[in-house]
Each structure stands twice: as C-alpha cells, then as structure tokens.
Protein 1
Amino acid sequence: MHPDVVVIGGGIVGCSCAYYLAQAGLKVHLFERDALGSGASKAGMCHLVTWEEPKIHLDLARESISLYGQLAGELKEDIQFRQTGSLSIVESPQSMPAISEMVQRLHGWGVAAQMISTQEAIQFEPAISPAIAGGVFYADDAQVNPLYATVGLSMAAREMGATIDPYTEVTAIELNPGKSSIRSLQTSRGRIQADNFVLAAGAWSGVVGKMLDLELPIKPRKGHLVLTAPLPTDRFRVKTIFSAGYLESVKGSENIAVSMNLQQTVNGNLLLGSSRQFAGFDRTVEPHVISRMIQRTLSLLPSLKDVFVIRSWAGLRPYTTDLLPVIGKAPQLENLYIAAGHEGLGITEGPITGKLISQLVTGHQPAMDIDCLSMERFQLKN
Ligand SMILES: Cc1cc2nc3c(=O)[nH]c(=O)nc-3n(C[C@H](O)[C@H](O)[C@H](O)COP(=O)(O)OP(=O)(O)OC[C@H]3O[C@@H](n4cnc5c(N)ncnc54)[C@H](O)[C@@H]3O)c2cc1C
C-alpha cells in the first residue's frame, strides 16, 4: 500500500490534517505512537481563543472556530463545541491602561472585546472576588472537548478511507539518494513509502526532525491542570474565566509561571489551570505547582474552597520562541510539510492547520497568507 500522504502524530493537529487531506480525496495513513490525543491534546483545556495577538493568531482562530462550527455538524461524536464567551479578570488598577490599549487594538481587527468595571464583572459572574480592578468580556470565545474533537476527526478521516494507526511509532526516516525528499518511514510495525509526509508530532517534532538532520526549534513547555468533581452546570454564568496576567505567563521566561484559568466543561467538571515551565519531556505532576494553581484560583474565586479535586496531570505544549506555529513546506525537502509548534493555542488552531496543510499538499493556494509561519523564519540547519 502506497499512500499519498503519511501523517506523523495523532494529536488534534495530526488528526485535523488527516481529516482534511482525506476530505480532499487523498489516500492518508496516520501514525501515532501511543493512543490518539495522548500528547498535549488530551492534556489541554477546552478554550477556543479569539483575541490572542499577533494578528495571524486572530486570523487562524477565526477560521478555525468557523471550521469547528461545521465539524460540530459533520462529525458523528458530540465534540461539545459551544460559543460561551470568556471573561478576563484584571487584578490591579495599574494594568488597566495597557489592557484598554490592547482592547482598542483588538477592536481595530474586529474582535468582540468589551471592557467592563469591577461591578459589571461581578454581575457577569457573582463568584468572582470583589477585590479586582475590572475585566474584559470576549463574546466570541468558545469551548470544545479537545479529546472528543481529536478522536472524532480521526474516526471521520477513517470513514473517508484514511488508515489510522495508533500505538505505532515512527522510528527512522529514509531520504531519497539526492537527499531532497523523503523516501520512506520506518515504524515500530514496518516500513512505509509515500508521496508526501506531514510532521505533526507536537512537542516531539524536534525529535522527529532530528531523524532527518532537520533542526526544528520546537521544545516542550510543561503545563499542569487540575480537574474537579462535577458541579451543577449553572454554577457559573461565564464558563471560561481567566486572569489577564495569563498573557505574561505565556510570554515570560519565569522558571515556573502560574496563572488562573477556570473552565467549566459541558459535563460540569471544572478544569483549573494552568502553569508553564521548561522541564524537558518530564510529565510528572509536581504537587507544589498544583498547590500554587489552586491558591491562585481561590484568591479570585474564594467560593470554590469546598470543591473536590479529583485528578491532576501535566502535558507538553509545543513551544516556539516567537510563539507562532510552523505551518508550511519544509525547506530543502520537496515532500515534507510541517504542522507543529502551536504552544497554548493548538486546540484553537487545529482545524485550520489541517485545512491549510491539505491545501498545500494538493497544490492549492492556501486560504490565508501564512508566509510568516514558514520554517524559513528560523535560522535552519539542514
Ligand atoms: C495545560 C494545557 C492547557 C492547554 N489549554 C489549551 C486551550 O485551552 N486552548 C488551546 O487552544 N490550546 C490549549 N493547550 C495547547 C494544546 O493542547 C496544544 O497546542 C495542542 O494539543 C498541540 O497539538 P498537537 O497535535 O500539535 O500535539 P500533540 O497533541 O502533543 O500530538 C502530537 C502527537 O505526536 C505523537 N508522536 C510523537 N512522536 C512520535 C513518533 N515518533 N511517532 C508517532 N507519533 C509520535 C505523540 O505521541 C502525540 O500524541 C493547552 C496545553 C496544555 C498542556
């Protein structure tokens, strides 16, 4: 069997690629070394973010959320997609001018962002501590269940003829004699040849890149989450509430950055996040990080002190130094495409990434200008 495209990695990005490539009529084969979604995609929260700068993120998010709307109708599984809005809490009055400037910029790009006072924030969500300076309501933010979306995409791709092989690791990559293209992959279950290859191995993309002597500047950025027992689904008026200081934790280089982010899922459980740290590929849960996250949550939502925590885990975001994903053709290898490096926005940007990769592989003009996402922006050693 000789597929048109092999996809390496079965997270939200790889499964989106498989889905849109199969929909474009190509013969697809996806390899995932573990269970589908078992990397960052199962570990992530459910927030679809419409306001993260720079503008390319806004464009990707807008297109992707529109695709999620379609997928909610197309996929057999309920992916729990819903337009929830989100509330960003500004804790100190000194931060308000910078937040107000950001909101002005976002308005210029058509983002539905509304500055609100402390009083209005509490009216929006009475559980919030009154000791805050104000907030921003983002009406277009949404939620999806990342694992259901990942698995749903893979099952739909399979129904369109794709072969989806979990528990199959790509262990080596063989180039053609001129070294200008990939010839075959060695997997834990045999060798496979194909016309095109998509690297969508999330935080491990750099490791897979090394099999090709390709220096891909993507590294793991660990993030912890806490899950509580389900609460009544009407306990929170706003289903996603986070501290505006979250942005500093994304951009910062602090050893362990912790910010407050609460999301109530469709099932009623609360996801409490999150943290950011560089710790290699270690996914061990660190109790002192969990404890800091819970303290941050209680400082802004004190009424949660009686809620039961039932589980905690850590996952690895695929980090790039400029916090932008790599979506495009690999330089110097004619048949390799990269779809990786989405850091904390991979759930949001998964579907559009898959769609763009399918347009590139089939030789169509991508639906949006993605030159700034190419690998050429890094100093690459090949
Ligand atoms: C705590 C936390 C909270 C988050 N919250 C959000 C959020 O609210 N909204 C949002 O948009 N994003 C969020 N994210 C980010 C999001 O989860 C990631 O950006 C996204 O899951 C990346 O998807 P991916 O498919 O690129 O990577 P992954 O899901 O990691 O998939 C890559 C896959 O490749 C496989 N693989 C690796 N090497 C090989 C190999 N050699 N052979 C075969 N398979 C291989 C891995 O096993 C893995 O399953 C969060 C992340 C974390 C950690």
Note: DSSP finds ten helices and 20 strands in the chain.
Protein 2
Amino acid sequence: MVRSVLNGKIVRLLPGVVLGILAACTGGLRDIPDREPVPAAPARRVVFIGLDGLGAAYLSRADMPVVKRMIREGASSLHVKNVLPTNSWPNWSSLFRGAPPERNGEENFPTIFSVLRDQGRGKRAVFFYEWSGLRDICRDHSADMRDIQTDMAAAAEIAAYIAEEKPDLTVVVFNEPDSTGHSERWGSGAYYAKLRELDGLMGLIEQGVKDGGFYDSTVFVISADHGGILWGHGFNTPRQRNVPLIVYGRGIRKGLVIQSPLGICDIAPTMAVILGLGIPEEWTGRPIMEVFE
Ligand SMILES: [Zn+2]
C-alpha cells in the first residue's frame, strides 16, 4: 500500500526523471563491461591452454597437480556450457569469437586475436594448434600460427617461444584428450593417463612464463571445447556440454568457485578485459567480472 502510493507519487510528480534514471540504469548495467572493462588494467599477458575433449565431469578424478593448484589459487567453474552440437569447430570458433556459430560466421568476424591486433598498439599473439581446422580462426594472420603435437618436445618449444618472444597473448590448443577419448573411451584409464601427461606439459609451459620473467603479470586461462561419453561427443548431455574454465594469476581472485551460469562465449570477452581491450559489439558473450580481485 505504502509502496504503491509512493511509487504513484514519484511517477506522477517526476515521470520523466524516473524513466530517465531507469533507462540510465539498465543501459549502464549493460554497457559498463563493454566500455570500461576493468579499472586500471595493467599490462598483463594471457596464456590460454585449451584441451580438446576435456569434459568438466572428468576433472575431479584426474591426476592433474598443475591444474588443481590453479583451481585452488584461482577462479574456476566446472559448469561452462558449450554450444551445440558439442563438437570442436562450433566450440573453438565460439570460444575465440565470443559469439555462437549462428552469429559468428561472417568473414572478418572479430576474434580475440584480431581484437588484440586492432586495439593492442603493437601487442602480439601466437596460436599453437594441433588440429588443422583451427587455422580457420586466424585466416587473417592476426596471430603467429605454429603447429604442434601433444608431446614434451612441443611443450618445450612453446615454453622457449614464450620466454624469448614474450607474446602478449599465447594460445595453445592440444588435440588431446579428444584423440584418446575416441580410441580408448572417455573416462578410461588411458584417458586419465593422457590428462596426467597434459598436466605435465602445462607445467612446462608455465615454466616458460617464469623463465621469461613475467609470471607475476600473467593470467592463465584453461578451458576446453567439449567433453564426451563412451567413444564420442556431439550430443546434448551434461558430460558433453559442460567444460571447465580456470582463470589463474595476476589480479584474479583465489579459491573462487564461480556459481553463476557461464557460456563458452564468455571466455573471449574475459580475456579481452584482462588484456585491457574493448569488447566488440558483435560479441554476445559477457566478461566474467567476478574473477577479478
Ligand atoms: Zn572429437
């Protein structure tokens, strides 16, 4: 009763002001992450490591000390929804293009790499990929493209590149544990053994950042394109749809388990904020602001 009278008064007396404030509030909420990413974003570097086929459901039992340390000391979610169908191309493209396949298909659609090139004032990106399909994400040569395999030699090469070239954005996408899942089954002993091996490779890459002398200004982002079940993926089940996200490093909250619903398209905008870049209007994903200290 009181409230309705009060509201009636305000609306009657100051309709234009109230509507104006409402419009400013809703518009402002939507616009803040776009226009003013993060207060005083320092010169930070991002190292993104993608593991093709790492379903979030398999992480709890995985023997991955490097990843688990980053989860403990960073911000994470095991409930990042990917896009359908739960296959690699729709999901890697959505992850790096900040928008789902039905919106991101135009030529020259902005990627995290092209945004860094266009806004980064000389900042540089490198993209280490194993699956050749990923080359299509960087047809514009907005990153230094390097093909790799899932092995120690590749991890050592990546670490050396990082230490010497000091790229602002390093993206590494291993084609495992997907290959092992297809041949041996998701959740098999071989699948978990591959996760342990990948964890060791990630430790080597982390060491490259330390050797480069910029560990303290780097944020690691770890995620995946899809999970799997039995010997495949492509369908809409939790084990195929939920992928992990781990954000760890400079300025990132420690021990945060993110509760809000996240999508794979939120990862590029979050990396853009870390790098101090504006978010293109074409992107539908939102930066995950709660990861920041
Ligand atoms: Zn696959």
Note: The beta strands are 45-51, 75-81, 125-129, 144-147, 169-174, 218-223, 242-249, 256-257, 262-263.
